[in-house]
Amino acid sequence: MEFQQILSWTEAERLDLADFLDTLDEHEWGVDSLCAGWTVHDVLAHLTLSTRTGLPAFVKGVIRARGSLDRMEADAARRRAAEYTPAELIAQFRATAASPRRSPGSKPADPLVDVLVHGQDIARPLGRVREMPAERAAVALERVWTSGFYGARKRLPGTRLIATDTDWTAGEGAKEVRGPAGELLLLSTGRPADR
Asked: Residues 19, 122: contact at Cβ < 8 Å?
């Protein structure tokens, strides 16, 4: 998959998510997301960080979090959510939708993974539907499956995943899980899937 295509899809997904976020009511920002311990507001704050975190801030954050990337991300998201209102964060997110910048160490498809998965982390607890285009979800799913960072193969040992809405399969084993690429993406990243 070409970098420019992934960047274009990431921009489109970011802009679509920003439009979706504009529709949320004030009380919805405090709802728990699918990310344990993060509110909807926290998840949005996290999404604004990937285009704003350079290597020095990244290293400092990891040190402050005693080597835990999860703790570093959670701390940074909560600090940013405390500093900015949802409207300010949406504006920041929208302003950098086309940015090719990404967190240190990440690959071109990681921002696409981020926006697709975190869009669901926000929408599903609110009872809202956000469609994931199958081709985009499959590219994100391939990144998640082949990267040790996400832990998909450890999470789903002995499992073969088969997308039902696009030509994508991965994994080996007697157990098969079939479903839309977007649902397999959520399953592979440790979220509950609908199908």
From this structure: no
Q: Which residue has the tokens 């507001």?
A: 41
Place of tokens 């997301």: 33
Q: At what angle do helices 110-123 and 134-146 cross, to 10 degrees?
A: 110
Nearest to 164 by CA among 141, 187, 140, 181: 181
Residue 34 CA: distances (Å) to CA of 86, 124, 168, 189:
18, 8, 25, 11
Is the pTM higher than 0.90? The answer reads yes
Read off the DSSP letter of residue 159: E
Note the pLDDT tens digit of each residue in 126-139.
999 999 999 999 99
Q: What is the mean pLDDT of residues 82-94?
A: 98
Please give the average per-residue pLDDT across 82-106, as a whole number. Answer: 94
C-alpha angle 189/19/26, rounded to 5°? Answer: 85
